[in-house]
Each structure stands twice: as structure tokens, then as C-alpha cells.
């Protein structure tokens, strides 16, 4: 049995396959044109936020699971006080933004986005990126039609907005008068007041019978037992909040951060990864998603991280805003 097939495994290198998206940016080989223009600030977005105290905090870990992701080593960072959204930005909030500005997301500009294979309507055929057959490039998939033409968010207005690229999240932030959090801010807020926390609720491992966050149950990518009641996203206020009152900082959807993605290592592999990340202008994503599971993509830990190009979107990418006090 390979380590990534063993439910109790702990690893130090990334598995050959994971639920995360392909590294190559969507724009590779495509004339994407300039990034969308930022809307005018002051959109009057109403969001529940909490104050997070400043101070010197720990970011990353000295016990990395995926070294290739740059989870470690742990480092100390001094932060100013800030505020952060209690919830990820919901479909309802994103719809208000689009209604006020007419903004078109990257998925709409490109004409497609990544959809998990189980969500395709019967008979729908869509190509898969090499190495990740569970992802399909679905024409017409975007935030308001998450599974492609014919799908709707009408019954998911309080679920997190998905198919959101970093460029889209940044545009929403400009309109709403906020900003994307830094990786350090995100981790500090996610820990809920415990600088040593592994998860927002502490150290207890979620599993198929103990649903502490919205992750996969069963055998990825073919069987989800739905023991937590959710096949895809959950409402933004599902599960118990952490010590700061934040919901779903781990699981549900990946959340974009402001930082460029880079690995703090002098190894040859890290140098190569950083060069590729710089070429794609990758940005940090945190928190994992409803597709994560300890047996293959143990990235719903607070220290876990990933990076993708700013025009990348999928059915498990979302965001929340930070705010200066």
C-alpha cells in the first residue's frame, strides 16, 4: 500500500496526484488580454467582520506534511491589528457586486472553468487536464452556473461563491473597500487565538465519522459517503466557528491570499518551483476544500498552502476579505 492510500499516513513530499488544480495557468497558450479593470471602491458591501489583534505570530510549521508546498519552516511575523470577514464571500454577496458593477469573472472571459467530474450532468463530455482526471474543463461554468449551463446558485445563495480567480477576488475587494488577507493574517485569524493550533478548532483530526469541517468522506475521487451531508460546498456559516468567530477557514473552499506564492528554501527543487510560480504570477491559496482528505490531499491544515496563477478558477476556489482597522 502506498502512503497516500493509507488513512493514517504522514508524509513529507507531495503525492503524485491531489485534488488541487493543475499547476499550469489557464492562460498558457491563450491570448487572455489584460486582467479585468478594478471597480471603483465604495460599493457599500455589508459583511460581518471581527477584530483580530496584532502581535508577533507563528506562520508555517516545523513539522511539514508536504515539504514541496513550502509549509515550513515556521517563522515569526509581526502583524498590525486588522479585521477579517467572519464568512467566505457568499454567492449572495458576489451577486450584489456583479449587479452593481457588471463585472465579468475570469471564467466568463475565458468561457470555461474547472468542474469536479461528479457534478457533470449525465452525458456531458468535457476534457480533463493531464494528471487530474477528476477535473473537467466545462464550457460555460462560472460563479452563477457552477456546474455549467443549466446549473444555478438559486438554492446556494448562502454558500461560498466559487469559480473565483484571484483577479476576481481582488476586484471584489476594491469594490467592497477591503483587501485580500496576507498569508500571515489568514493563518493568525484561522488559529482562533491559539498560535500553536493545527486546525481552527485545535488538534483533533476530522475523519469520516467526525465531521468538523467540510472535507471529503470515503474514497477519492469515486466515492463520497456524504456522512457530513455535503457533496460540494456547505453554507458559509456551517460548522462551529473558531475562537475568533470565523467559519470554515479549513475545508469548504480554498481561499485566496494577497501574497505571491514562493517557497522559503534554497533547494534546487524549491528554486525550480519558485521560478515556475513567478512565471505564472501565482498567488497563495489557503484552507483546502470539500475535496480534501487525509489519505491523499491533507491540505485542510492551517499551515498547508498552495499556489495558482491569478486567472485560475474552479468549483472549489473562493475567498474572504480582510480590512484595515
UniProtKB/TrEMBL annotation:
Transmembrane segments: none annotated. It holds the Pfam family FGE-sulfatase. Residues 48-322 form the Sulfatase-modifying factor enzyme-like domain. It comes from the Bacteria. This is Formylglycine-generating enzyme family protein.
